[in-house]
Write a structure and sequence with these properties.
The chain has 193 residues and is mainly β. The protein contains three helices and 13 strands. The protein has a domain of 132 residues: Jelly Rolls (Sandwich).
């Protein structure tokens, strides 16, 4: 025998905490910031942020354009988020990070991504998870510039990119690149590795 349908009982009302700061609205179990955002007590030095499309530091490094959306200085060292526009055929040499994990989300174009022994084509809407300690690299295989978002955790590698960008349009020698990479725990692999 089926139970007779009856409307759901109203949810019990949960009282707001005794004190709710004026910049926070309270819904049961949620904090919603109304104005100036405050740091989380759990992560000192890490402020919530809303970044406009035209904000961040933009620079060119070895022919690719990078926009630092969020740096380690803004995340308490937890991560860096950057947008990268790569020309057709561009890609860094395969390399190994000893400290950072990377996540690439492809916004436009197609990349060939190498991770360990695997080589795959990843197009717009695709994602690559590149853990530390695993050799990897990527290359824009399209005929036009391609664009991706990269999340690097923990932060710090953005300083390496900025250091390389200071060489200007002339690329540093492979030896100079290797010297610059070493303090960041980054190993650049020779071609074919």
């Amino acid at each position: 025998m089926r139970k007779k349908f009856s409307p759901a009982k109203p949810a019990p009302q949960i009282a707001a905490p005794a004190f709710v700061p004026p910049h926070i609205a309270y819904w049961p179990g949620k904090r919603v910031f109304l104005s100036r955002m405050e740091p989380s007590a759990a992560t000192p030095g890490f402020l919530p942020a809303l970044i406009d499309a035209d904000k961040g530091v933009t620079f060119t490094m070895l022919g690719t354009t990078m926009r630092l959306i969020v740096t380690g200085a803004q995340t308490g060292g937890r991560y860096t988020v950057l947008e990268q526009v790569t020309p057709a055929g561009w890609g860094p040499p395969r390399h190994i990070h000893s400290r950072e994990d990377e996540i690439f989300y492809i916004l436009e174009g197609t990349y060939e991504v190498h991770c360990g022994d695997e080589r795959r084509t990843v197009s717009a809407g695709g994602c690559a998870i590149l853990p530390r300690g695993v050799p990897h690299g990527f290359r824009n295989t399209g005929l036009a510039p391609a664009r991706l978002i990269s999340v690097i955790t923990p932060s710090g590698l953005e300083d390496y990119f900025i250091a390389i960008s200071k060489f200007g349009p002339l690329p540093p020698s492979p030896a100079d690149l290797g010297k610059l990479a070493a303090p960041y725990g980054l190993t650049l692999l020779p071609p074919g590795h």
